[in-house]
């Protein structure tokens, strides 16, 4: 039996949001979606790939965004090749709900987060351990949700699910080959994104800072004809705010340089806090929200994961093992505004041992610098593009926001431009009704894992003093993001976003625990 994609566009939904419902009884896949989602007879999604728009390649290669496609008697749901975004899957009775938004998937399932489960932040932050080792299932009030990073699933008529690994290119073994691979891939993705046959062609723009990673992204984009870059002008360090705009690079390349302050988003009445935290509990990428008008309808090059990919020999992991989960909080914002994220360092990172060999090779010694802040590959790319040494990557800076800072700034405006929201009261109520079991779980996860990490670190430190080469691995790296009494912040953010989705779907008056089949069925639109 052949499957049919049945579309229902909701202009009120975020531009790139979509969700599908597949049942055992029917060969019709019901899809609701925002106005910029591509809808075709045998595929749909917010996908960008390095090839002709007329010939979609969605299950292999460097797919950005996400997609649904039909193949013989299977429906294939494909996630981005990188680990910043994911697909969310809820199996419910005789139906399967899949969405590129966690909050939208819960809303369509008539479900919500479990208010007695305090470890969502830990579970989602575990993606830093790699897509093969991170947490792939999280509980909900009525059951569970599966998370799909960097892969596809194939689903039959009977809702049998089979996971499929993505096949990625492996065509470089030296700096020239790697650079060509990187530049050619970005060029192909940029061309696909800008194809005029798209509902919303995407123009490329890059983030820019004075560090290695986004500077390299900007140089790559510039080599393709991109004349724009966007910067957060102040980076936070212990000694105070510092200029991190990369202005010397922008001037050398004669770029149109869009500069925003990291707190510009506070000038809007929009609830960015919930949007960024619901995507990933860190919320740390919220500073970019001040550039919403500039970023709408863009393919956005970002440098996330460059610290691990381009620092020599820091890891040999081939499944995107990271130092943090930065970039993940961008995804709900990107869906709403119409942004496709391109984290350039992920390109080729499935061949991390090869990249390490290139970084450490004799041909790269000219681009090594003393100290810990040393990434010869991006330094060579940037300097060979005409940027002078000393104009970038002289000091490690940071523009990410912490949960504490986000709400400190939000509360400061409580009696000024907009209300601060209800998080404090929400968190108090959640902590008051927290069960003993949940309290013990949180204590063991956060305090226990911290204690184990301290012990392991002390042992490894002692080994280094004794000149013993062996080091114990850090067993609980995936638990490193700890919220303590602020654990309800993710519940709050997702609930806020679900309320927004219910209103956009015309379900604002519904009770929060309705069954999925009680929701109004989307109207039919021929593919």
C-alpha Rg, in Å? 23 Å
Main sheet: strands, sense, barrel: 7 strands, mixed
Q: Could you tell me how far the N terminus lies from the C terminus, measured between alpha carbons in angstroms? A: 18 Å
- Strand arrangement within the widest β-sheet reads 1-3-2-9-8-11-10
Oligomeric composition of the shown chains: single chain
Question: If helices are DSSP runs of H or I spanning 4 or more residues, what is the number of helices?
Answer: 15
Helix content: 25-40%
User: Structural class per helix/strand content?
Assistant: alpha+beta
Strand content: 15-25%
Gross geometry: globular
Mean pLDDT metric: 88
Q: Give the uncertain stretches in residue-range form.
A: 237-241, 415-420, 508-527
Overall strand count:
20
Any key phrases for this structure?
alpha+beta, disordered C terminus, six-stranded antiparallel β-sheet, 527 residues
Short summary of the structure?
The chain has helices at 102-108, 120-125, 175-193, 213-223, 247-252, 272-279, 292-295, 306-310, 331-337, 352-359, 376-383, 403-412, 423-432, 436-465, 489-504; strands spanning 4-9, 18-23, 28-33, 38-39, 43-45, 67-71, 74-78, 87-92, 95-99, 137-139, 144-148, 152-155, 161-164, 203-207, 228-232, 234-237, 240-243, 256-260, 298-302, 339-343.
């Amino acid at each position: 039996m052949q499957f049919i994609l049945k579309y229902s566009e909701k202009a009120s939904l975020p531009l790139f949001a979509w969700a599908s419902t597949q049942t055992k009884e029917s060969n019709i896949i019901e899809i609701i979606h925002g106005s910029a989602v591509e809808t075709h007879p045998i595929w749909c999604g917010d996908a960008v790939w390095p090839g002709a728009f007329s010939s979609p390649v969605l299950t292999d290669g460097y797919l950005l965004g996400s997609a649904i496609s039909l193949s013989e008697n299977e429906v294939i749901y494909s996630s981005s090749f990188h680990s910043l975004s994911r697909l969310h899957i809820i199996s419910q009775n005789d139906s399967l709900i899949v969405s590129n938004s966690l909050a939208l998937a819960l809303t369509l399932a008539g479900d919500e987060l479990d208010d007695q489960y305090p470890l969502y932040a830990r579970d989602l932050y575990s993606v830093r351990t790699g897509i093969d080792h991170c947490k792939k299932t999280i509980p909900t009030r009525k059951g569970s949700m599966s998370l799909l990073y960097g892969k596809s699933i194939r689903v039959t008529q009977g809702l049998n699910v089979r996971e499929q690994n993505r096949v990625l290119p492996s065509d470089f073994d030296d700096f020239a080959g790697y650079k060509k691979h990187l530049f050619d891939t970005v060029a192909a993705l940029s061309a696909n994104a800008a194809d005029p046959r798209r509902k919303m062609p995407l123009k490329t723009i890059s983030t820019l800072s004075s560090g290695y990673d986004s500077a390299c992204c900007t140089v790559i984009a510039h080599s393709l004809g991109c004349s724009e870059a966007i910067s957060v002008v102040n980076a936070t360090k212990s000694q105070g705010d510092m200029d991190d705009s990369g202005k010397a690079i922008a001037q050398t390349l004669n770029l149109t340089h869009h500069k925003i302050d990291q707190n510009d988003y506070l000038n809007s009445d929009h609830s960015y806090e919930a949007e960024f935290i619901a995507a990933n509990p860190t919320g740390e990428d919220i500073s970019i929200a001040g550039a919403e008008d500039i970023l709408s309808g863009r393919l956005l090059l970002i440098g996330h994961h460059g610290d691990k990919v381009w620092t020599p020999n820091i890891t040999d992991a081939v499944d995107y093992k990271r130092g943090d989960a930065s970039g993940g909080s961008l995804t709900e914002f990107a869906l709403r505004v119409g942004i496709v994220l391109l984290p350039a360092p992920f390109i080729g990172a499935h061949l991390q041992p090869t990249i390490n060999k290139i970084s450490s090779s004799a041909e790269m010694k000219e681009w090594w610098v003393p100290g810990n802040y040393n990434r010869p590959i991006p330094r060579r790319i940037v300097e060979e593009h005409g940027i002078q040494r000393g104009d970038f990557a002289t000091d490690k800076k940071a523009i990410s926001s912490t949960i504490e800072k986000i709400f400190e700034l939000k509360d400061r405006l409580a009696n000024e431009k907009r209300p601060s929201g209800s998080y404090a009261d929400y968190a108090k109520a959640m902590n008051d009704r927290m069960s003993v079991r949940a309290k013990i779980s949180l204590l063991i996860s956060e305090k226990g894992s911290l204690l184990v990490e301290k012990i392991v670190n002390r042992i490894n430190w002692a080994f280094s003093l004794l000149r013993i080469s062996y080091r114990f691995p850090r067993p609980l790296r995936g638990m490193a993001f700890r919220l303590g009494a602020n654990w309800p912040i993710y519940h709050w953010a997702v609930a806020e976003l679900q309320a927004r989705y219910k209103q956009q779907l015309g379900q604002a008056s519904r009770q929060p625990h309705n069954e999925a089949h009680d929701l109004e069925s989307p109207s039919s639109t021929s593919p």
